[in-house]
Amino acid sequence: MIKGNFGVRKSDIINRRMFIIGTAKLIIFSGLIVRLFSLQINDNKKYLTLSDKNRIREWKLPPTRGNITDYFGNIIAGNLKVYQLHIIPEQVENFNYLLSRLKVILNMSVKKIEKVKKKKKTIKAMGKFNRFRKS
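Structure (tokenized):
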């Protein structure tokens, strides 16, 4: 075997390899940092909504209910459909027109309409009272 030194020292080869490996590490690390910045800062809203969709799921299942009967078949507890209507007077343009429409749709008596109007006046008065009250 020929053992010749072709003008290249062993330490120069090691230094060159270390420089190449160090540069490769720096490029890979820089790429990771740029990608993490892109995910965390630039695409923040996209991944935030995706995570919310993944975490929150709505299941609308009707309850399994039935009538509770006694030994003789008499209904002790049954099911009724109950509806509630909430009116926010500040969000209604024409309150009297709304009440007249509700009277026709819900077959409300004049007494109930007057009760709603009276309740609106008391709520309005309480709102004025609360504005001028000192805390």
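The chain has a mean pLDDT of 82. The radius of gyration is 38 Å.
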